[in-house]
Design brief:
By secondary structure, the protein is of the alpha+beta class. It is 33% helix and 28% strand. The longest helix is centred in the first third of the chain and has 12 residues.
Length: 67
């Protein structure tokens, strides 16, 4: 199991973090997603078949690219 924190500069409210959490939880292999409005971060716990590249691509696709 990998756990990684991503900086997401576009996070501005709880709606942003909920959107990101809901989208990333749909990826197979993602077990948890925690967003922080204050830190503008998202911490993702995942294992195969999810990858860092798939997570980054999903964030880009939903218009919350990681910095």
């Amino acid at each position: 199991m990998d756990k990684q924190t991503f900086q997401i500069p576009k996070i501005s409210c709880g709606h942003c973090t909920r959107t990101i959490e809901n989208e990333l939880k749909e990826l197979e292999g993602v077990s948890s997603v925690e967003g922080s409005v204050a830190d503008k971060t998202v911490t993702v716990a995942y294992q195969s078949p999810a990858t860092k590249e798939k997570i980054l691509a999903t964030l880009e696709e939903i218009n919350y690219p990681a910095a």
